[in-house]
User: Fold these one by one.
Assistant:
Number 1:
Amino acid sequence: MLNEISVKLQAGKAKIVKELVQQAIDAGTPVQEILENGLLKGMDVIGEKFKNDEVYVPEVLLAARAMNSGMSVLKPYLVAAGVKNTGKACIGTIEGDLHDIGKNLVRMMMEGKGLEVIDLGTNVSPETFIKTAIEQNCSIICISALLTTTMTTMEKVVKLAEEAGIRDKVKIMVGGAPLTDAFASKIGADAYTPDAATAAEVAAEFCHGM
Amino acid sequence: MIDEVDCMNVRDILWEAARSDSHRALPILSFPAAQKMGVTVEDLVKNSELQARAMELISRETNTLAAVSMMDLSVEAEAFGANVRFFSDEIPAITGQLVSNMEEVQALEVPDLNAARIPVCIEAVRLAKERIHDKPILAGMIGPYSLAGRLMDVTEIMYVCFDEPEIVHEVLEKVTSFLISYGSAMKAAGADGVMMAEPLAGILSPDMADEFSVPYVTRIIDALQDDSFAVIYHNCGKSAGDMLESLFSQGAAAYHFGNAVDMAKIMAEAPEDILCMGNIDPASQLAGGTPETVAAAVKELLDRCGNYKNFIPSSGCDIPAHASWENIEAFFNTVEESK
């Protein structure tokens, strides 16, 4: 049953995944197992395939939607069982930039690693990233940019995190087409990742290390 | 020189350059003219006179193979009624979702050529043609799936492609009809061709591109292209490299690729009679690099692709407005110094 959930999730079958999750719950399968060996495992496979160029963006979107469909059934049971998220992150596209496909993919992939992700949308000010990280107790701030003119604003998020005294409590991740490792190092970010699947892996590693 | 251009179509000019022992480039270069003109990007995208002067400036100051009009992919969506946000230093962006269901799509009107900034862009091409006599004029235009994505939201459209593909096809019918009219108007205004940007098709799977982009692109090319008017197809997406056969079947005069693909791999797979262009990274090199890194990147590109007689060096996408002219000059100089 759990393998079937994983397989159907990979195929983007949202309705079937939802039904299978309910059946697994009804059959008495521990909810954490359904989460880890069904839903998250399916997203892991999709993430790996995406990283290896074996699937394309639409397949990832559909798989993520199927996971959310399964999670809508599973979530109340996870809460009742006291199952915690892997970690908590806030994500957004930096101020002045309205592009969101990359940011959406990273959010979905992070959720596929069991993280709770607060999506701040596009055109997000550095102050909003910091305020959210403090108020929501996020351990990761994830910033996206597609434009070369907006990516420079990412540095302000790092500076504000230092000024707010949360720099040692939060990892700052950056990504987007014009970015590089060197740029991330230059502005003092903790990580640059070249694709959504790697971003989710790095975020999960950060959470496990905290 | 005027006579030479008048008797050679874009396709001939590009092939002659590709087959020559020396190299010449055709980057997607327009917005950096704003720096030299002392105007903002917003000024440029709203003013045909400024656009024509920008094209004239680039044509005069660089050895580009053609003068390319502003690659502003918000123009057509705005004409359909989408909201646009303008910036002083970046090209405009579409915000929100104009249509989301069949009812809204059926009510969506195909705009006429007086809508929004469409007349500004057509007039810019007309003025540029009057003033630029030694190079062909290429008008910028969005591709059908990329326009549909801007009207339906670039993420949402992908779900709709799976859930209710008939809705996407309905939108594609309307945008294709409009793009044929728009391209025809550009042709009538004096453009020698269009560079049709279809970047969103480059994040689709090959099967999806075959259904939602390729047939519509083909229709536009069939309607516009003739001996005196060329369509150059631009797709800077990563998956473009996985759908080459299908893309090449569209019949464009040339294919322009982005830096998300390995240009050498594209050239190895492209038939000898298919003209390909690409792909120096406009963001990390032309905007973010130095003249030295740009020169090194161009040399590497030409080392790997320069021997193909169906290759023309270019930027991987539109060069950002704030890219330094030192980097742009390094690009052209390195191309021309290479044999």
Number 2:
Amino acid sequence: MSTNEHPRTARNRSETSSPLTPAVFYILIALADGDRHGYAIMQEVSNRSGGTVRLGPGTLYGAISRLLRDGLIEESEERPDPEMDDSRRRYYRLTGQGGRALAAEAKRLEDLARLARSTRTVRKLKNA
Amino acid sequence: MAVLTLNERFVERLYGRLLLLYPPDFRVRFGPEMLQIFDDAYALHLRDGTLSKRFAFWFRILYDFARSLGKEWGEALATTERVASSAVTLAESLVIPAAICGILILAGFTTAILTRRALPRGFASPVAEWQGTVFALEAGAVVMLGLGVVSLLGAYLMARRRRASGVWIKL
């Protein structure tokens, strides 16, 4: 994981701490375990979400474009097997900033879930 | 890399033409990759085979296209410094799809007129069978152009809203 950071990201992130959209969150999760190309990200997101989140090429690359611009991911130079690989494929990896954004979002969702579980309504439904 | 059949090549070309509607910067940077993953996904769905799955695949692709087209143009137009140049590139982007659309419509009508004139009454020609396909292509082209125009209008409205709100990261 690289430590490259985009100055704009660091500034905006600390100023707004906006929640990530589900698709962006899933893309960061897909890249957390290693470098992947676009199609592998699509498949990983579909598998990890149990088929509920399916990214089309336009949505996926729109998100990748913004994640690259904001320094949360970067293009990877390494290719697993250049001989067997399609030259149009590009591989992406999480940056240090992206890893921190992922961890922060996971914590935010965890806190929200804990808050929801502490309510009487959710406890009652859970016990029923 | 897998060898593409004639049908797959046609479909790939069709999707390639759709990509021309994206903002030039986005298209140049991500177009080849998008085409590549479209090939992979299409090959996978062809193996599945059923008509309903193919329909669902195309629906997802076209929905994703229309949705992301608006967002990408919104993103391109939202950057204040680039508004003037985007207006030029927007017009440039529309030239090729509009030309393709025009050629398809012209070819469709020419085929229809020539077929009708050349054939005696009641004569069943194999050329006549292609009329349906030609008109389907024309209809497809018109729908695509319509989708493009609607998305661009959406993009313009989104750009105006986003410029005011300054959202950090959204899909």
